[in-house]
Write a structure and sequence with these properties.
The complex is a heterodimer of chains A (about 250) and B (about 300). By secondary structure, chain A is mainly α. Chain A has one domain. In chain A, about 75% of the residues lie in helices and about 0% in strands. Chain A is built from ten helices and no strands. In chain A, helix 3 runs antiparallel to helix 7. The radius of gyration of chain A is 18 Å and the shape is globular. Chain A starts with a helix and ends with a helix. Chain B has about 300 residues and is of the alpha/beta class. Chain B folds into two domains: about 220 residues, 3-Layer(aba) Sandwich (Rossmann fold), CATH 3.40.50.300; about 60 residues, YebC, transcriptional regulation domain (Alpha-Beta Plaits), CATH 3.30.70.980. Chain B contains ten helices and 13 strands. In chain B, helix 8 packs across helix 10. Chain B is elongated. Classes of the chains: A mainly alpha (about 250), B alpha/beta (about 300).
Chain lengths: ~250, ~300
């Protein structure tokens, strides 16, 4: 794994230098807290089981962070690097392919963590949003959900011929999912038929798991989410390993 | 001298196109070996099979005695590569790119002095996207040298550069060789191959059609030298046909072209001209070039 640390560090810096990606990962979720907080406030309501609108929104926005990285960041960057011959340049060194993938995943996890810290900080400073779970559980849930979603993202990169197409596919997948999975707005606000659609969207399971654990659910209540995400991760990672192209 | 690269009957097809068709050659230690030919001749396919980036359909490739595919890591550790179609992330900085590439190798060059040698010291903090074409190629040379390689591969290093930048690339390539490294390069500029390479393989349609030193290749053509000059008074009293070595004298207006061969041909012609007291000007001599070699071997002009 020679070069892993250096590669992760450089990729992390490159991410931060990309204004659009950084905006969606770091600035957009806290901005939503400010915007929807101003509209709905955070008064307890029976719709959310006695919690406020922002209490519920902050953990669901974790799904937004992961979704934007997995469905936009990963495919656009990966397909773009392949298209421009950047992956080829790496291939011509003794660096192992796995090193590249691990560095990329680590970078995306770091960005997720950074995004979550900013999101929670804004939510807590302004609305004193509640947190009733354990940090470890949230960390593990984010890790599982993140890896599963990133694995889908690499699959999009495999399918797309270039960065532009990757962006189109990513947006077509992500934008509807943003609202229908309960990531962009609490699922309770959707009508019954649309809620049924959400059962078919991968991001839904991330949102359910993180949100449930956030308010203190035991893991045993979420075995379905864990199984679905684990399955997505296993299948997509296998396909990624088969289909990944360096040029 | 040891063989640094050995290629035997290398073939590689893409669909129905035979990109490399039974290519065999060796590159010796310490030489600048060039592969020259028009676009699509199979140069890049060949060099990338040697670099271990492509898998040949058939044939045997050895680099520093090792199989570049089976012993990928070990070979990659000892070679330096500049690729034709490759790039770096636009927002990575020059210094960062060099440090990053260095981190993949066990043996590392001093990146500071590498930047200095390639004239990129002031660009250390500049994003790669902001570099000029020549600066970018110099950075790619630096990246190819970052592991102090024993062999360096340059694929179309000077394509897209202006003549001045191209010349400074030649100096850099010579410098690389003078440090004791073997250089294997491809180019579609005949002049570049002629000026820069110790030995040249001429490729066409996936095959090597000739391989030797540029001088020997040109000599093997056995075409005449030419002396060209302009006479001002119609060339009265000029009789060059009977001189030893002269084969042909052509006059078109005031322009005289004398074709011939042999050791003293040129000095004989000039001497006779001086003696005849015929006023002349704009005298130059024309020697055959690799361009003529290519034309003779393939029956086609080699144009960019």
């Amino acid at each position: 794994m020679r070069g892993l640390k250096q590669l992760t560090l450089v990729m992390f810096r490159l991410y931060l230098r990309e204004p659009v990606a950084t905006f969606f990962t770091l600035a957009f979720p806290p901005m939503l807290v400010l915007l929807f907080g101003a509209i709905y406030g955070n008064d307890p309501t029976p719709l959310f089981g006695g919690r406020g609108s922002m209490d519920v929104s902050v953990p669901t926005y974790v799904g937004l962070i992961l979704g934007s990285i997995a469905f936009l960041g990963v495919p656009i960057t990966t397909a773009g690097y392949r298209e421009q011959g950047i992956l080829r340049r790496f291939r011509a060194t003794p660096m192992r392919p796995l090193t590249y993938i691990i560095a990329d995943v680590l970078t995306n996890l770091l960005m997720t963590g950074l995004g979550m810290v900013l999101l929670v900080l804004v939510g807590w400073l302004i609305y004193r949003v509640r947190f009733e779970g354990s940090i470890l559980s949230i960390g593990l849930a984010t890790l599982l959900g993140g890896l599963a979603m990133f694995a889908i993202g690499y699959l999009i990169a495999c399918a797309a011929p270039g960065a532009r197409m990757a962006q189109v596919i990513g947006m077509v997948i992500f934008y509807p999912m943003m609202f229908l999975s309960g990531a962009g707005m609490p699922i309770e606000l959707l009508p019954e038929t649309l809620r049924r659609v959400s059962n078919f969207l991968p991001l839904t399971y991330v949102v359910r798991l993180v949100r449930g654990l956030w308010f203190g659910d035991p893991w045993s209540e979420h075995w379905l989410e864990v199984a679905v995400l684990g399955g997505i991760l296993a299948v997509c990672a296998l396909l990624d390993a088969r289909l990944f192209r360096w040029e | 001298m040891a063989n640094v690269v050995e290629v035997e009957s290398l073939s590689k097809s893409y669909g129905s196109v035979r990109a490399a068709d039974g290519v065999s050659f060796v590159v010796s230690e310490g030489e600048i070996f060039g592969m020259v030919g028009p676009n699509g001749a199979g140069k890049t396919t060949t060099i990338e099979c040697v670099e271990g980036l492509r898998r040949p359909d058939t044939g045997r490739v050895r680099v520093l005695g090792q199989d570049p595919l089976a012993e990928r890591q070990a070979v990659a550790e000892r070679i330096g590569v500049q690729l034709q179609a490759s790039n770096l992330p636009g927002r990575i900085r020059v210094g960062e790119a060099l440090e990053l590439m260095a981190s993949f190798y066990m043996r590392r060059a001093d990146t500071g002095s590498l930047l200095e040698r390639l004239g990129l010291e002031e660009k250390r903090k500049a994003p790669v996207a902001k570099l000029s074409g020549g600066q970018k190629q110099r950075l790619f040379i630096a990246l190819a040298l970052v592991n102090q390689p024993e062999v360096v591969f340059f694929d179309e290093l000077t394509t897209g550069l202006d003549p001045q930048a191209r010349r400074s690339m030649w100096d850099l390539v010579r410098e690389v060789r003078d440090q004791g490294r073997t250089v294997f390069l491809t180019t579609h500029f005949m002049e570049e191959a002629e000026r820069l390479c110790d030995r040249v393989a001429i490729m066409d349609h996936g095959k090597i059609v000739a391989l030797d030193t540029p001088e020997a290749l040109i000599h093997s053509l056995d075409v005449g030298h030419r002396v060209v000059f302009t006479v001002t008074d119609g060339g009265q009293g000029l009789s060059l046909e009977s001189l030893p070595g002269v084969e042909r004298v052509e006059m078109s207006g005031e322009r005289v072209t004398v074709t011939g061969r042999g050791e003293g041909f040129i000095s004989t012609v000039i001497g006779a001209l001086e003696k005849s007291r015929v006023p002349f000007r704009d005298l130059r001599t024309e020697q055959p070039t690799l361009e003529d070699v290519f034309l003779t071997l393939t029956g086609r002009e080699m144009r960019e």
